[in-house]
Design goal:
Elements (H helix, E strand, L loop, with lengths): L1 H11 L10 E8 L4 E8 L3 E6 L6 E4 L3 E7 L2 E10 L5 E9 L6 H10 L5 E2 L10 E7 L6 E7 L3 E6 L6 E4 L5 E6 L2 E7 L8 E8 L5 H16 L1
Parallel strand pairs: 5-8
Antiparallel strand pairs: 1-2, 1-7, 2-3, 3-4, 5-6, 6-7, 9-10, 9-15, 10-11, 11-12, 13-14, 14-15
Length: about 230
């Protein structure tokens, strides 16, 4: 009898992970001309764009997304599908939130699901960096001022300028350079670029970058190559 009760309870218990509710985000999908409204549904295994226009709806497995770019008010998804009309460039979808904002908890959730690193303009409210560098980010048409925070696993550029903050894991940074102790260049994936090309982020430092700090950053970026 006890065995029968145990089997019955086991059958009624929810399977692990099946009770996870998808995140639904109301968005506008920007087209070359105009746009349409719908919802981005972030499930456990895939992302779906649901719209009243069936020919605009899409579904992507996380492993089939070449690059996901997150900002508090927008999401970009770069696919592996080539578009002949764009000289072989990969197909990209750009969405703007119609309400609310995305936070660091959502970023961490997507980071855990994605097979490839995120490009993120969402940063945590607080961090515990090993050291920090006040800096100006050279950016066309106007730069921003903020602070570069170097932790054990990630770099955060924090600024009050709208859309100017950024976060990179060391394992997604592609290169590091400097022309002197008051300048630093980080090579990273381009945020949602249609051809998936890289981008250099150049910072003018407001204090001297010490040799041991440069060595720390270099080791964190290149350790995946020397293991």
């Amino acid at each position: 009898m006890r065995v029968g009760i145990f089997v019955l309870l086991l059958a009624l218990s929810p399977a692990p992970g099946n009770g996870e509710e998808p995140r639904v985000v109301p968005v506008r999908h920007d087209h070359l001309l105009g746009g349409c409204r719908g919802e981005l549904v972030f499930g456990a295994e895939e992302v779906r764009y649901a719209s009243g226009k069936k020919d605009h709806e899409r579904t992507w497995k996380y492993g089939d997304i070449q690059q996901m770019t997150l900002f508090p008010d927008r999401v970009s998804i770069l696919t592996y599908r080539s578009r002949p009309m764009r000289m072989g460039g990969d197909e990209a979808f750009n969405f703007r939130l119609l309400s609310g904002t995305l936070d660091d908890g959502f970023r961490r959730e997507m980071e855990a699901r994605m097979a490839r690193p995120l490009v993120s303009g969402i940063v945590p409210r607080e961090s515990s960096p090993r050291f920090a560098l006040p800096a100006r980010h050279r950016k066309f048409p106007a730069g921003t001022e903020g602070v570069l925070e170097f932790g054990e696993e990630q770099v955060v550029y924090r600024t009050s300028a709208p859309g100017g903050s950024a976060l990179w894991r060391y394992d997604e940074l592609e290169s590091l350079g400097s022309t002197g102790p008051f300048q630093l260049r980080l090579g990273a994936p381009s945020p949602g670029g249609p051809f998936g090309s890289g981008r250099n982020y150049v910072f003018d430092l407001k204090r001297r970058l010490e040799p041991e700090e440069y060595d720390f950053i270099w080791e964190r970026i290149h350790r995946r190559h020397i293991r």
